[in-house]
Amino acid sequence: MTKLVLFSSANKQGNTAQLIEEVAKHHSLEVIDIDALTITPYNYQNNYPTDDFYPLVEKILAADKLIFASPVYWHAPTATIKALIDRITELTDVKRLKPKARSLAHKPAFVLATSASDELCPIFNGFFEKVFNYFDIQYSAHLHANCREGFNIESNALSQFNEALNK
Ligand SMILES: Cc1cc2nc3c(=O)[nH]c(=O)nc-3n(C[C@H](O)[C@H](O)[C@H](O)COP(=O)(O)O)c2cc1C
């Protein structure tokens, strides 16, 4: 059972990294720092140099559960996560890659997020809801830590998330 974390943050030892560590106390996770990868931005010609995108797609497709881990930066996930999702558009554009886009369907996906707010930003969450909905990815659960003062996860939220990730 592969639980693949796609991690992005400007701070590799920051709050989002800490949130992943909390979850990793209860699950075996494979974490990929996607900021360290080269993902060429999407272009309409779908003409790309060799980069890390196709190997990452294979890892994503092979994973049983997909976990996006990002801080809330200006109501949105990080630029790398956005660039990855933009590039996934290629899978829907190019005929030979379309089966890969279709293979995303029904994959259980999760979101780990940290911010300086009590609640997870609805714009940030809405981004994932819309993207997952487009690809028929199953949005299983999210876990948010409010890091305005320290590192706070709402009571029961961690156990509920762990339960969802175990299903
Ligand atoms: C560039 C930037 C933008 C931010 N935008 C928001 C925001 O829109 N809403 C919010 O609640 N917190 C915002 N924050 C606070 C971060 O979400 C919060 O500190 C988060 O836990 C940082 O995670 P990290 O340590 O992994 O970077 C922002 C922080 C930065 C650096």
Automatic annotation (TrEMBL):
Chain segments annotated as transmembrane: none
Record-linked SUPFAM superfamilies: Flavoproteins
Domain of life, per lineage: Bacteria
A Pfam family of this chain: FMN_red
Segments forming domain NADPH-dependent FMN reductase-like: 3-117
Gene Ontology molecular function: any one: oxidoreductase activity
Keyword tags: Flavoprotein, FMN
Name of the protein in its database record: FMN reductase
Organism (species): Pseudoalteromonas piratica
